[in-house]
Amino acid sequence: MASSQAQPMNHDHVTDARDTWYTILKKKVLSSVTIKPGQRILDIACGTGQVSFLASTDVGPTGQVIGIDTSNDKFEKAISCKSRDSVRYSNVEFLKHDILDLESLNILGEKNFDLVICADERILVDDPFSSVIRWKKFIKSGGYLLVVIPHHKSLVKATAYERTLNRLGFSGGGDCSWLVSEDSLPQVLKSAGFAVERTTFIEQFGQSPRYYDIEDGITEFEKLVGDDTEKFPSDRTLQYLVQHQSTALRIYQSEWARLAVDGEIEEVNGVNVILARNILNIRLSEEDMVAIPAFIGGCRCGKVRYSASVVPSQATYCHCFTCQKLSGGPFLPFVDLKSAGVTFEHSTAHELQNVTSVATRSFCKNCGSPISMTYHGNAEDISLTMGSIDEDSVTVQLPNLDRHIMLKEKAKWYTLPEDGAKREDGISLP
To answer: What letter does residue 379 receive in the DSSP assignment?
Structure first.
């Protein structure tokens, strides 16, 4: 979708020889978007406030910039910088708060910002799905999200290391397995109701792509373990790697080799800056309408995510023994729709199990959330748990309750309400 805004403001003129890579990056990030006087901007993980201060000049005295961070050192530096020029930065406010709990900050309000920025490329790596959905609540309809994400080939060492830890039964402290191409985050944004308008690659100065041989995996593993052991000497995972170094090295080498193309592993030093527009509830072209999902959803921890492009046909409450055990309640509510209209994001946490002989169920093996159920012999249809749907993402009318099923196994302590829904002792499939 073409942007109707003017050309982005160029902040390169304020760059000088004293600037670090990160300072230059922040300036180039803001050059990727047009900021207008009077706008309200939310700067997430603002650090020392570099982006906030630059943006404050663009929004002018009638606008406002709110920066949020949890780091004591960085937050104090931001406050100190503002106090040295309080008149110039009177439209900037810094809040020390958990960026994963923005909802508890009443001062922000909902749908209240023209632009939300996250210029810290590390933030979205671990959990892009739930982060994007969480931030979307604060963006006006037609407003923008500007995010920075590492280039997928800048994480080759971390990817091999993370996969090694996973195979050894440890958590790598993050999950970058979803970041496999330049289109990975744009797909997440589209499924959340954004239209991606621009992706800009920023290469770290003086850092051309590097190429490694498969044999280099040994050296890279030793560097990673050595560096981390020096920084975190009491870390139990690292202690295990040192004690079982031959086993861990063999696994790392195999994962390193998996990243090779024609015998080489390419490492790109840089980030992608992505500008996306919140397109829900605004007038769209037919092409854009096709791209908007009916709804999106996933598990509690965000490791399993899906998007649905079709409207569910019915809502069903299942009272079988298995649904009682999985839900911890008298039933599990589902919406039924065509399998072809549901797309799951790739995730190693998405697990399929045949808990009974009747259907295949899917779960998040990380947090345990039940996600879906597909009856054997009816692969064309899928039932999604209603609790897994992100309510704020729904763009269609979800069906009202149509039927109660498996009432022959209903919990004796539960009284069925007079809700007008059909009642079935077993289950009738199409």
So the answer is: T
User: Which one, of 369, 176, 157, lies nearest residue 268 by Cα?
Assistant: 157
Residues of the chain with CATH 3.90.1590.10: 293-423
Whether the pLDDT of residue 245 is over 80: the answer is yes
pLDDT in tens, 24-79: 788 888 888 899 999 999 999 998 999 999 999 999 999 999 999 988 888 899 99
Single-letter amino acid code for the residue at 295: F
Q: What share of the chain is helix, strand, coil (3-state, %, to 5)?
A: 35, 25, 40
Instruction: Pinpoint the residues of the chain covered by CATH 3.40.50.150.
Output: 12-209+268-278
| The listed CATH number (3.40.50.150, 3.40.50.720, 3.30.450.20, 3.90.1150.10) that belongs to domain 12-209+268-278 | 3.40.50.150
pTM of the model: 0.63
High-pLDDT (> 90) share of the chain, %: 40
Question: What mean pLDDT, rounded, does the chain reach?
Answer: 83
What single string gives the DSSP state of each residue in 245-303?
HHHHHHHHHHHHHHT-BTTEEEE--EEEEEEEEE-TTS---HHHHHHS-SEEEE-SSSS
Residue 149 CA from chain centroid, whole number:
11
Structure tokens given for 321: 């023994």
The phi, psi pair for 162, rounded to 5°, reads -65, -45
pLDDT at 18 over 50: no
Distance of CA 62 to the CA centre of its chain: 32
**CA 88, 89, 90, 91 torsion-angle sign:** positive
CATH architecture of the domain with range 293-423? Alpha-Beta Complex (3.90)
Contact 277, 192 (CB under 8 A): no
Q: Which tokens hold the place of 210?
A: 């590097």
